Amino acid sequence: MMQQMRPDRAVIAGVTKTDAAAPSIVATRFAAAVMLALATVLLSSVVDVRVATAMADLPSGDIRAASYLSDLGLSGYMFALAALVAIGPLLVRHFSADRRWDEALTVLAERGAYVFATLAVSGILAQVIKHLVGRARPTLMEAFGAYHFDILSMKASLASFPSGHAATVFSVAIALGALAPRWRIALLLLATLVAASRVAVEAHYVSDVVAGAALGIVSATVVTRLFAGWHLAFDRVGSTIRLKQPGLFSGAFAARGFAP
Fold first, then answer.
1. Pairing of strands 240-243, 234-237
2. If 217 and its partner were Cys, which of 33, 59, 105, 256 is the partner (CB 3.0–4.6 Å)?
3. 163 near 205, Cβ under 8 Å?
4. Closest alpha carbon to 255 in 91, 59, 15, 80
5. Predicted local distance difference test score (pLDDT) of residue 238
6. Residue 94: which pLDDT band, with cuts at 50, 70 and 90?
7. pLDDT higher than threshold 90 for residue 105
8. Could you give phi then psi for residue 240, rounded to 5 degrees?
9. For 140-244, where are the alpha helices, taking DSSP H only?
């Protein structure tokens, strides 16, 4: 007879409490976003011009390296991968006669949809705010200054605030970190490097990338709570949000006793 599991290790939807995203984590994310928003105001008046001026004198080799790093923040390939993870498992489930994989494939598809939705929310919000604010990019600082705004502008040169790349990488870092908590710190460090590269290539001011990071964090947190309420990828138990199954990809299968 199986030994009764202790209450503090109770498995809910295949996940122990040690795998759970506790309410304190959600509160911490919102607190971090608020702090970043406040930092944006401070940085805009204190740091933006100084850093932008310094970046204009970077060696070409450093700018080239920053450009490569910056490309990691492009959302196109992320959308494609998320869509593949969302749709692929459903196609496999549809055409497979082995029903043992159904639940694991469904969970995997839900996770792909979760990342896709996070990207979409952060990306759409960033684009809307960009064109509402119409801030001139650092490359135009000599002509217009650091605080030139053209409300409702559709020009790319006047779409500096917030950084779309920063919003994208931070939203994905938070989303993947929720699916694989052990990766969270590494993902956030990578997101920070990508966001910083946008300043180095003179695409954004420091306050732009800080605002983008805050937007990404809030977007991912809201989408996480929505998906938990819909019991997709996550489950909500009281005020606690938990992964349906542990691990990023393999956990969806290993939790069912398979090792693909």
1. antiparallel
2. 33
3. no
4. 15
5. 80
6. confident
7. no
8. -105, 135
9. 141-144, 164-179, 184-200, 206-229
